[in-house]
Write a structure and sequence with these properties.
It comes from Methylobacterium brachythecii. The chain is an all-alpha fold. The protein has a domain at 41-118. Helices cover 67% and strands 0% of the residues. It has helices at 6-23, 31-34, 48-67, 71-88, 91-100, 105-117. The longest helix has 20 residues, at 48-67. The termini are far apart.
C-alpha cells in the first residue's frame, strides 16, 4: 500500500468534499465557490476503487458534521452512497468527475438518489 503525503491527503479530502457538496446542491449552482477549486490531478488516472474511496470519505466528513455524529456512525451508509453513486454513473459522468473533481448535473441527480436510497440526509 502506497503512503499518501499530508498534502496529497488534503487534496483528496478537498476533491471529495467538493464532489459531495456539488452533488447535493438542490438545483443551486455553487460556481463562485468552485471557481478557486483546482481538482487533484490524480483524479485523471485514479482507479474506480480509489474514486469510490474518495466519494465515501467526503460523504463521511460531510455527513458527520451535518448530523453531528462521529464519523464511524456514518461510515456504512456513506459506503452505500459511494457504491451506488459510482455504479450509476456512465462513462461521460465519470470522465467529467475526473476532469473537474465534482459531479456534473446528471451525476448530481444520481448522487441525490443514492443519498435517499442509503437513508442519508441531503445537505441544504
Amino acid at each position: 500500500m502506497r503512503l499518501v503525503s499530508s498534502r496529497a491527503s488534503k487534496l483528496l479530502i478537498a476533491a471529495g468534499l467538493a464532489s459531495l457538496l456539488a452533488a447535493c446542491q438542490s438545483g443551486r449552482t455553487q460556481v463562485a465557490s468552485l471557481e478557486a477549486y483546482t481538482p487533484d490531478p490524480a483524479l485523471k488516472t485514479a482507479s474506480k476503487s480509489n474514486l469510490k474511496g474518495r466519494v465515501s470519505h467526503a460523504c463521511v466528513v460531510t455527513q458527520s458534521k451535518l448530523q453531528k455524529v462521529e464519523e464511524t456512525a456514518v461510515a456504512k451508509p456513506c459506503g452505500c452512497y459511494a457504491d451506488q453513486t459510482l455504479k450509476s454513473l456512465d462513462s461521460g459522468e465519470i470522465q467529467s468527475y475526473r476532469a473537474t473533481g465534482y459531479f456534473n448535473d446528471s451525476a448530481k441527480a444520481k448522487a441525490l438518489n443514492a443519498l435517499d436510497s442509503c437513508k442519508l440526509p441531503r445537505p441544504v
